Amino acid sequence: MSPSSVRCAIYTRKSSDEGLDQEFNSLDAQYESCASYIASQRHEGWKLVKERYDDGGVSGGTLDRPSLERLLADIDSGRIQMIVVYKIDRLTRSLADFAKLVERLEASNCSFVSVTQSFNTSSSMGRLTLNVLLSFAQFEREVTAERIRDKIAASKKKGLWMGGVCPLGYDKDPDPQSRTLVVNQEEASRVNKLFELYDLYGCLRSVEQEAKNINLKSKRQLYKTGRVAGGKSFSRGQIYHVLRNPIYLGRIRHKKLTWPGQHKAIIDEILWDRVQEKLMVASQRKRGRLPLQEQAVLSGKLFDETGDRLTPTHTNKDNRRLRYYVSNRLISGGKDPSGWRLSAPKLEGQIATIVADHIESRASNYALTNTPDLHTANSFKKAANAQIKKLRSKGLLQNADIIEKVQLSPNTIRVRLAADPLAASLGITCGDLSPELITFEVPWKLKRRGVENKIVIGDPVPEPDQTLIRLLARAHQWVLDMKAGTSLNRVAQKHGVTAAYVRTRSKLAFLSPKIQQSIVLGTFPTEFTTNRILHMKIPLDWRAQNSLFGV
After folding, report:
1. Are residues 183 and 257 in the same domain?
2. What is the average pLDDT across 495-515?
3. Among 72, 216, 309, 527, fewest CB within 10 Å belongs to which?
4. Nearest CA to 437 among 383, 494, 485?
5. Strand order of the sheet with strand 412-417?
6. DSSP string, 62-99
7. Are residue 446 and residue 334 in the same domain, yes or no?
8. Collapsing DSSP states into helix, strand and coil, what is residue 112?
9. What are the tens digits of pLDDT across the range 225-241?
C-alpha cells in the first residue's frame, strides 16, 4: 500500500539582496538542496508543490515577509502539509516568532524539516535541540546587530557619514575611501531657499505652496536598479524634515545626540536658530481634535497588493471634509495606475460589514473555535452576536481594535483580525480561536460610475440608476406625444425643456427591450452613464445594441 501524499513547500530566505541578481544565487542553492531532500523522501509520499516561496533581502528577525505570508496563507487553507528549509534560521531567528509559527502550524497539522539539522519535534529532546539551535541563531543576530550599532555610533561621533541616501544639498565624496559629504551647490541653494521661506512665513503650508510656485524640487535619486525617485514638488513632511535636519548646520546626528561633522555647513547658525525657534512655537499651538466620525480608523492597517501602505488624506469641498485612503506612492504627486484612492467612509463601512458577516457566519456554524464545545458554543455565539451588533450599528468607530491588517488586491480583500481583542470580546481564549476566523478573504470590485468609484464587496446587489430610469420614462412619453402628432417644439415646451434636450434624449426609448429591462433591474453595466450613452452612436438593430452594451 502506497503512503498518502504529503504536499511539501520549500521556503528560502537571504538577509541581504547582495548577489541575488546572479543567474544561480543563494536562494537557488537552498532550493536545490531542499528539493533533493524531498526527492529522497518520495517513498514516504512527499511531493514538492510547484510554487516557490523565496524572500530575498529580508531579515529573519521579523515575520512580516511577503513570501512567508503567502506560505502561511496556503498552510491555513490546507494546501501545504510540510515546510522544508535549508536551516531552521531561514524560517526565523526569533524564539518568540518561532513559538507563534509552531502554534499556527500545529493548528493546520503542518510540520517542518531542516535538511541540514536533523531533529524530531515530536519528542521532548527534539524540541530542546530545536530551542537550543534557535537560541544560538537569535544570539548571533543580536550580537551582529550590536556590533554594527556600536561601529555606526563610533563613526558618527567622529563626524563621518555612514551611508544611506544623501540628503538634499550634498553628494557622496567621489573618493571611495572617504566617509564624508561634499556640497552640491545647486541643491544647496534649494535648501537655503526653504529655510528663508520658513523664516519669512513661519508656516509649513505657505512654504509648501510658495515652493511649488517657484518650482522647487526634491532631490532626484537614481538607484543601481535603474529606479528613479524624487525630483518632485516638496510635501510639508519633506520640508519639515529638511528644516529639522542638523546636517545642514555641519553636524551629524545619532539618535538624540549630534556631533561636529567633517562636511561643510549649508545654513549659518543664526538662520538655523531662528527657524528652529519658529518651529518650536508652531508645535506648541493648540490643534483641535477631529470628531470621532472623521478619524481615519484604518490608519496604519491598510495595504495594497504591492505591500504599499494606504495613507489617510482629505480634501475640503463646500464646507465638507472628504476623506480618502491613498497609496503612499501617490501622496507626493506621483502617477501610478496601480495606486489606490478610495473613499474612506465607504471603505470603512464595507470593512465593518464584511467582518460582521464573517463573524456571524462562523458563529452560526459553531466554528469560532478550533474544537467546538456544545457546553460553551451558545455563550460564544451570544458574545459574537453582541460584537456583530456593535459592528453593524457603530461600524469601525468603536471596533477598529479588532482589525489588525487589511490587504487590497484587484479582486479580493484579505482581512486579518487582531486575535487578542477579538478573543476578549468573544470570551474565548486567544489560542482557541479558529485560524479561519482570524484570517479570511472576500471578493470585491471597484466600479466606476462617472467620476465616482463604487466599492462592491461580495456578490453585488443590483442597484438601478434612478436618474437613467427617470430619463428613460420621459423619453417614452416624448415619443408617444410625437407619435400622436405633437411637434418636437411643442413637446419640449410642454415639459419645460429645450427641443435639443428632447431630441438627444428621446433615443433612449429606441433601446432594445433587453437593455431597457437591465436598466430597470439595475444589472446594466455601471460604466455606461447617462452622459456616455447620449454621446454614443447607437445602432438601430437591437442585436447590435445588446452586443455594444454587453447585455
Report:
1. yes
2. 87
3. 527
4. 383
5. 302-303, 403-408, 412-417, 439-449, 452-457
6. -S--HHHHHHHHHHHTTS-SEEEESSHHHH-S-HHHHH
7. yes
8. strand
9. 777 788 888 888 899 99
DSSP 248: G
Instruction: Give the number of other CB atoms < 10 A from CB of residue 462.
Output: 10
Q: Three cell numbers at 424?
A: 476578549
In a domain, 323, yes or no: yes
- In the predicted structure, residue 337 carries a pLDDT above the cut 70: no
Please give the residue that has the higher pLDDT: either 148 or 545.
545
pLDDT reported for residue 456: 59
The C-alpha angle 163, 169, 170, rounded to 5 degrees, equals: 35
Name the domain count of the chain: 4
Task: Kindly report, residue by residue over 353-376, the tens digit of the pLDDT.
Answer: 888 888 888 888 878 887 766 566
Type of residue numbered 300: G
Residue-wise pLDDT tens digits, 267-306 = 998 999 999 988 888 877 656 555 545 677 888 888 888 8
Give me the domain span that covers residue 249: 170-283
Mean pLDDT of 452-480: 74
Residues 394 and 496 in one domain: no
Q: Name the amino acid, one letter, at 327.
A: S
The answer to whether residues 453 and 472 belong to one domain is no
First to last CA, the chain: 55
- For the chain, what's the residue count? 551
Query: For 149-171, what is the mean pLDDT?
Result: 82
The answer to whether residue 500 is domain-embedded is: yes
Q: Which amino acid is at 229?
A: A
Do residues 451 and 501 share a domain? no
320 and 434 inside one domain: yes
Calculate mean pLDDT across residues 524-541: 79
Per-residue DSSP letter, 168 = T
Question: Domain containing 224 — which CATH number?
Answer: 3.90.1750.20
* CATH number, residue 79: 3.40.50.1390
Q: Kindly state whether residues 309 and 441 are assigned to the same domain.
A: yes
Whether 129 and 37 map to the same domain: the answer is yes
Q: What is the pLDDT of residue 292?
A: 47
